[in-house]
Amino acid sequence: MTPEVLTFNVWLGIIFAYYFIATIMPIDKIIGRLYPLFGAVLLIMAFGMTIMMFASPDVVFYNSAQWTNQHPKGLPLFPLVFITIACGALSGFHSTQSPLMARCLSSEKYGKSVFYGGMIAEGFIGLVWATVGMSFYHGPEALQQALASGGPATVVHDSAIALMGGFGGILAILGVVALPVTSGDTAFRAARLTIAEVFNYSQRPIPARLLLAVPIFAVGLVLCQVGFDTIWNYFGWSNQSLASIVLWSGAVYLASHGRFHWICTVPAVFMTAVCTTFICYSPKLGFGIPIETSNIIGIVVALAAFVCFIMFGTKTHVVEDEALKKESV
Known about the structure:
The chain is built from twelve helices and no strands. It is an all-alpha fold. The longest helix is centred in the middle third of the chain and has 47 residues, at 152-198. Residues 321-329 have low confidence and may be disordered.
């Protein structure tokens, strides 16, 4: 076993031990105590990198004339950019965390700042690193060379240290590390609670939590042996597909209750076209259909989904709402 593999396995064991404890313990005992620290380093990373990019004379920002397809292989911007920048723009994974977050709120009035604010913050972080990739490396060729030499970790390390110095760069790197770490613990916890709710299985006793957590972690350990590129390719599309499903569900709920549904309907139509086009076009994950034909299929499927929504998903249920109000009184 090489030193690199040994180091990887040691860190994997440490992280999974934390995940396991955080998954079965009450959320305020572990996650609730660590997340303020993670949030602090995230803010330092996001604002620090932004400020230092403007302050650094070595960073060259793109102007409007350079907004063309710069991909070395000429891959199409649509739909790939909306799949590649997954959580930073729209995230089905985050919708699975909504029940956890909602249960931590003492009042519904905090919902907008927590849920909307959280996605705005992550979108900002996504834009920060997209800007670093385009500007710090002075072109796609230099960025591609950095990725080839050491992957995304090298890009994060080199750009953070160069822009923020030794101490600040370490804080920025920790901010990036916090993202996958916090995704893991909440993902395992959400999986346990989702399965428990589906089967109405109480999670108050510790043995009941272990009965669900152990198989879930076994699956997670198996997935750790799969190449990251493969996992990310599947995650990008499945994450955005789940986001489309949740958006359609939200649109149906709002429309059926006579509320303003377009805030969900418009992005649902767009993301349906994105996900359909991608799975048709992708030679690795999908059907390998030419991009022009895939675009047409994506648009047709999105419009068909919209028509079905207008015909069947917008019927109001005012009578049901009134009955529920009387029962609550």
